[in-house]
Structure formats: C-alpha cells, structure tokens
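step 3/5: co-fold with thiamine diphosphate
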Amino acid sequence: MTYLAKPTLHHPSLQKNKVGYTRRDYEGKVSTLCAGCGHDSVSSAIVQACWQQDIAPHRVAKLSGIGCSSKTPDYFLGASHGFNTVHGRMPSVLTGANLANRELLYLGISGDGDSASIGLGQFAHAMRRGVRMVYIVENNGVYGLTKGQFSATADRGSVAKKGATNNDASIDLVALALQLGATYVARSFSGDKAQLVPLIEGAIRHGGAAFIDVISPCVAFNNHAGSTRSYDHVREHNEALNRIDFIALAAQQEAAGDEQEILVPQPDGSQMRLQRVLTDYDPTDRLGAMNHLQALQASGVIPTGLLYVDPSAHDMHTGLKTVATPLNRLAERELCPGAAVLDKINAGLR
Ligand SMILES: Cc1ncc(C[n+]2csc(CCOP(=O)(O)OP(=O)(O)O)c2C)c(N)n1
Ligand code: SF4
Ligand SMILES: [Mg+2]
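step 4/5: write tokens
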C-alpha cells in the first residue's frame, strides 16, 4: 500500500553527509512492488548516489510516467519535489519544470513501455534538446504493471512466460540516445549496485542530458528461461566496458595514471576517472561507441558501463539564452517590463 510511511526516527549516530543528512533522509515510503523486483534496487542506488553526492533532498525534482517503474519515485527521496505525469509524458513535463527553474536536480524515472512505446517521441525530443537531467529507464522488456505484455525493447526471439515468441525488432534506447545527441549515455544492471551507483553519480554531475538504461528484471512476468531480461541471462551476458571513480576537487588536475585510465573533467572542476575494462573502447568517441556497441550486441553481449560522455556538454538553457534566475524569483517588473520593451521586441521581428 503506497501510503505506508517508514518510521522517521533516526539513530543519533548515523553518519551525515556534507549537507547534514543521513542516508535515511533520502528514503521514501515502503515499496509495494513484488519482492525481488529490479526496480527496488534502482531506487536504493538512487538513494545512495544522492546521499553520496551531498544533494539536499529539497533540491531534487523527481518526475515519472506510468508503470511499476514510474511508481518508484514514491519509494525514494520522500522530501523532494515529485510529479507523477501521464503515461509517456514525463520528458515534456520535466522539460517545462527545468525551463522554469534550472537550479534543481531533475530525476526522470521511466520504464521501457513508458519511454519506448507511448513516450518515444517525448524521449527523443528531450534527448536532442539537451535537457539537463538524469533520465533513467528501468528496462525489463515488458509492461510489468499491465501483466507482462512484450514491450518495444524486448529482443526479437525472446519468449514470454506463457510461451509466445516476440517476432518484432527491438528498440535499443541506448543506440537512440546516442544518435539523438544525449551527452552522457550509460547502461547498467539493477543487480550490480557497485556499477550503478557511480553511473548515477556521474549523471548527477553531468552538464547536459544524461541517460541511463538500467536492465531491471521483472520477477513476476519476465524472469524465466527464454527471456533476455532475466537475472540469469543478464548475469551471464553482461560485460562491463569500464568502471567509474571520482577524484575530488584538487588544486592541481591529476594526470591519467596509465593508458587504461581516462580522466573526464566535470562541470564542478573535479575529474571523473574511468578505468577501462575493454582496452580499445573510447567512451568519448560517439561514432566509435555506436559502432562498438552494435558489434558487441550482435554477438549476444550486453555491454554495460559509461558508454559515451561528452565532457564539454552544455544544456538547453545555453542555446535558448534563458535567464539564470528561477522564474518564481523574478519580480513583476522583470516579468512585465512594459509596452516600450514589447514594442522594441516586435520591431526587431519585422
Ligand atoms: C494512456 C495510457 N495508455 C495505456 C496505459 C496502460 N499502461 C499502464 S502502465 C503501461 C506500461 C508500463 O510498462 P513500463 O513502462 O515498461 O513499466 P513497468 O511496469 O514494466 O515498470 C501501460 C501500457 C495507461 N496507463 N495510459
Ligand atoms: S510486476 Fe514486475 S515490474 Fe511490476 S513490481 Fe512486479 S516484478 Fe516489478
Ligand atoms: Mg517495463
């Protein structure tokens, strides 16, 4: 039942982060998802990442669509702003909120049905506009909430719980995000928190559109033999390309230790250390990444890790030249500067 709140009493000795909050302060209500659902592990990774990144909970806006995945914002960051939108419409509502106030951290939580079917157009435009956000798709290959129909990300040839085979080609959201211009693109697995938490942290720090496709098994409808989104299948075929670590803000920028290490500058002046696992993979080369991923996927591998990052990314506001101050802090004089200013704008458009 979604109204179940967790006890708010904290043990006084719980460790606090730099902004004075314990990890418990980032939790939400008690989850009502099926026991073992991958989505709960993603929620827990979000809690961990926000706490470790010292983000004050009230500085976060979490938005979602419809689905089991889209229910999860109720289960983390209970003290943050939240908006559960219509099915597939999270990206446009998030874009509008971001335009009104760019000072918040925007977390967009969606499912493969929500983003790859009804919301595909919305997903595409949020990526190409470079909306600064952490966009997470909890990808289980099915519509979990409506009892397990194949979603558009289900692999061709994969078999449903009741035995039907999926004959349709699948939509690869990572390939789409790369093609559409997202500047931080990653894939992970809900069962690998050690990989997922730093990927979310990297996305939080990123200066543009960050997309993470998290394979998040549905234990009720898509965790059987023949499924390519089951825990067993993903554990067997998952291949990490790299591992992320962060180097705190230092007076002097560090140099890469060896050729296995790539240092990616962050908007706050710190550096992200990427430890390559696959030696010839360069995550700063968009075209190379697209080719490499296609080749790996064709051989049955599920490549995970930070697949692409543009260290010099900028967001939608840069292109639109919008005012930096959140709209709710502008006074009437700034919002309605008068007829003379309007005349000048009109004259400039003639
Ligand atoms: C406009 C509209 N169409 C269809 C539905 C029915 N519906 C609810 S959730 C859902 C799909 C959810 O799948 P996904 O986004 O993958 O989330 P999951 O439950 O798998 O986490 C659908 C089709 C709806 N709620 N609204
Ligand atoms: S139906 Fe599937 S996606 Fe929904 S809560 Fe249960 S396991 Fe998770
Ligand atoms: Mg789904």
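step 5/5: annotate
DSSP finds twelve helices and 13 strands in the chain.
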